[in-house]
Write a structure and sequence with these properties.
The chain is α/β, with parallel strands linked by helices. Helix content is about 45%, strand content about 20%. The chain folds into five domains: about 5-110, CBS-domain (Roll); about 130-225, Beta-Lactamase; about 230-345, PAS domain (Beta-Lactamase, 2-Layer Sandwich), CATH 3.30.450; about 380-555, P-loop containing nucleotide triphosphate hydrolases (Rossmann fold, 3-Layer(aba) Sandwich); about 560-630, Helicase, Ruva Protein, domain 3, CATH 1.10.8.60.
Length: about 700
């Protein structure tokens, strides 16, 4: 293979060169490079890049090209002498027979590796065999076409292995693919071979013919100190990883710039108000020229450069509050080498300070209110309700309000919600707390005795009467409070007399001819809807309006589940104090208690806690022990299974079957864990769905 075959005539371009004419010529002839001349020097331009960049003014295109050193011109006779210079450049100018030619490095390498008998070529092959660089020619399938002994030594392979080797397995496929796709050399690639962990520097050079890559030329350089370099590199990598980990966990934004302000490093966390884009994507840019960076950072850099000491600057505006601190790092010569800038967004801190101040004021108001309530509660008599829910907080606000007056109060709510305790609270927080609170259960006293109990009677008023007469409960409550529990059960006859007593604030004892005046606050309660009873004629309408002055609705326990844990602990504490025990609930036991609807409300919860405490073994009450007690409660009504009397939507049918199966499983296994295992689902699924069934039916099958 003759070296002269690869010499090409150069194409020179200038400001007058027409793009169309040049493009046609390049399509016909294979010229990877064109050339331009300036000030007596010749510079190479890649043909493709020139055609693209030529859209700009010619002077700007030339300015880009002349930034690199100009090409040397070597005579053809001296090519073998300057072989290393030829290998160092992608293209070399050659003076041949008084004319100027050029040769590509890949063509020169291909000639060197050929098997021709030309004496010059043979001399070059001998030369390459003796220099400390490995040379290889690889075809398009990555098979070795030719190579020298240095390449074998560096790669730790034998000549006998060449026929079976594929170089992408040793040097990596990505490098070959990049060179093939771009037709551009890839230089100084640090590669560790998989077989021996040897490290080498490799240049990948495309062998192009008629603008098609036909193979690759590889130039390998040995690294004799690779082990030391590798160890040092590993150490640097570890330090770098530690630094990256530290930067990623620090809340503050940290950037590092050099002495001139070029951005060298940035943490992942950054203050969005200071940047238009993440700073770690702007590495290498001059910070002082970046409009994407906030002016505060510019000021910090300038101040550090000027004062050569630590600088702290703060910016406060309506939108954000930021603090930036610049710390200079000095070279041993005394000059600034790096500037580390730490920035913190104080906007959130400022907002939190404002909220803290508001919270302090609110806490102070609460404290004052608590002190006032504490003074009143200290003087109060009776039991105050225990709660943590918002619903009961609102109830107690109403109790506080009405306790300041003597208005009639109507307490309504389901049986067991604590209406009597609320009545006690009203009395205890009122100015009447030093006077008696008289309680009457209208459902517990026979109709024949209720009138005499309420209003009293004179001596000899009726046969069997006390000879001294009896003071009625209304008169006994004088200056205090009268609590009429379950007023809905009061007979209509007595309702009329009570109405007159409330209106006139006086009563006639049975058998008396003179009324007795009284001054009381009346509190009544009911677990039935009085408005409906009025409509049914079972309760006097005029009395209803007379007692419905200040109504308070007490929510059911199932509507304020957050109170269940607090009440359960209170009742358990009472049990522990009464019987000198040390019982406590597990967290899972609380979950089961909150899942139960408690149709009997607080009264049922109190009884349930006593039952659980008595049945429990040990000091901790587990969820299993709670389950065992809950099993004894009212079961869900038995349903027909497997039958549908009419057509219903599939999703409704699925829901019904699911309910039946879960109910059946709980009835059989009495445990959500065992039921879940039998049905092939998770325990949390059974617990959640069973809770929905319980809440829907109001009863529980366990």
């Amino acid at each position: 293979m003759d070296l002269r075959t690869f010499l090409r005539d150069p194409i020179f371009v200038d400001g007058t060169t027409g793009l169309n004419e040049l493009s046609k010529r390049l399509n016909i002839e294979d010229h990877p490079f064109v050339f331009t001349e300036k000030d007596g020097n010749i510079y190479p331009l890649k043909s493709f890049n020139f055609l693209i960049e030529r859209q700009e003014p010619y002077e700007r295109t030339i300015e880009k090209s002349v930034s690199e050193p100009p090409l040397k011109i070597i005579s053809y006779a001296d090519l073998t002498v300057h072989v290393l210079d030829v290998l160092a450049e992608l293209v070399t100018l050659v003076r041949y027979e008084e004319s100027l030619k050029y040769i590509l490095r890949e063509d020169f390498l291909l000639t060197m590796m050929s098997t021709g008998a030309n004496s010059e070529i043979a001399w070059l092959r001998s030369l390459f065999a003796s220099i400390p660089r490995g040379l290889m020619v690889v075809d398009i399938n990555y098979a070795v076409v030719n190579s020298n002994a240095e390449a074998h030594r560096m790669l730790r392979i034998s000549e006998a292995d060449l026929s079976t080797l594929r170089m992408q397995d040793i040097l990596g496929l990505n490098n070959f693919q990049y060179v093939y796709n771009t037709q551009t050399s890839l230089l100084n690639q640090f590669i560790t071979t998989p077989s021996s962990q040897a490290a080498i520097l490799v240049d990948f050079v495309p062998l192009v013919m008629y603008q098609v890559v036909t193979g690759f030329a590889l130039v390998l350089q040995d690294l004799p100190t690779v082990e030391g370099i590798a160890m040092e590199l590993d150490s640097v990598k570890l330090i770098n990883n530690d630094l990256e980990a530290i930067l990623s966990t620090i809340y503050d934004e940290i950037i590092v710039v050099d002495a001139r302000g070029k951005l060298l490093r940035a943490s992942d966390h950054y203050i969005t108000s200071q940047w238009n884009r993440p700073p770690n994507t702007l590495i290498g840019h001059q910070l002082l020229k970046l409009k994407k960076a906030d002016e505060l950072l510019h000021k910090v850099v300038r101040e550090v450069q000027k004062k050569k000491r630590k600088v702290s600057l703060m910016q406060n505006d309506s939108e954000s509050h930021r603090l930036s601190v610049g710390n200079p790092i000095f070279h041993k010569s005394g000059d600034i080498e790096r500037i580390v800038i730490t920035s913190r967004d104080l906007t959130e801190v400022s907002r939190l300070q404002t909220e803290l101040e508001q919270t302090r004021k609110q806490s102070e108001n609460y404290r004052e209110e608590l002190e006032r309530m504490r003074e009143r509660v200290t003087q109060a008599q009776g039991i105050l309700p225990i709660y943590t829910s918002q619903q009961m907080h609102e109830v107690m606000q109403e109790v506080e309000r009405v306790a300041q007056f003597s208005a009639t109060v109507l307490l309504s709510g389901e049986s067991g919600v604590g209406k009597e305790i609320i009545a006690n609270a009203i009395h205890s927080l009122s100015e009447r707390r030093k006077e008696p609170l008289i309680k009457i259960n209208c459902a517990a006293i026979p109709e024949s005795l209720l009138e005499s109990e309420l209003f009293g009677y004179e001596r000899g008023a009726f046969s069997g009467a006390n000879q001294h007469g009896k003071t009625g409960l209304i008169i006994k409550a004088h200056k205090g409070c009268l609590f009429l529990d379950e007023i809905s059960e009061m007979p209509l006859v007595i309702q009329g007399k009570l109405l007159r007593a409330i209106q006139e604030r006086e009563v006639y004892p049975v058998g008396a001819t003179q009324p007795l005046k009284f001054d009381i606050q009346i509190i009544v309660s009911t677990n039935r809807p009085l408005a409906e009873l009025v409509a049914q004629g079972k309760f006097r309408e005029d009395l209803f309006y007379r007692i419905n002055v200040f109504p308070i609705e007490i929510p059911a326990l199932r509507e304020r589940k957050e109170d269940i844990t607090l009440l359960a602990n209170f009742f358990l504490l009472q049990f522990n104090q009464l019987y000198q025990c040390n019982l406590r609930f597990s967290s899972s036991a609380y979950d089961l208690l909150e899942a139960y609807p408690f149709p009997g409300n607080v009264r049922e919860l109190q009884n349930l806690i006593q039952r659980i405490a008595i049945k429990n073994d040990g000091d901790e009450i587990s969820a299993l022990n709670v389950e065992r007690v809950l099993m004894k409660l009212d079961p869900i009504a038995t349903r027909q299974t497997g039958r549908f009397n009419q057509i219903i939507p599939l999703d409704q049918a699925f829901s019904q079957v699911e309910t039946e199966l879960i109910t059946l499983a709980m009835k059989q296994y009495h445990s959500t864990t065992k039921a879940a295992k039998a049905l092939g689902v998770s325990q949390s699924t059974i617990s959640r769905k069973y809770r929905q069934i319980v809440n829907k039916t109001g009863k529980q099958q366990l």
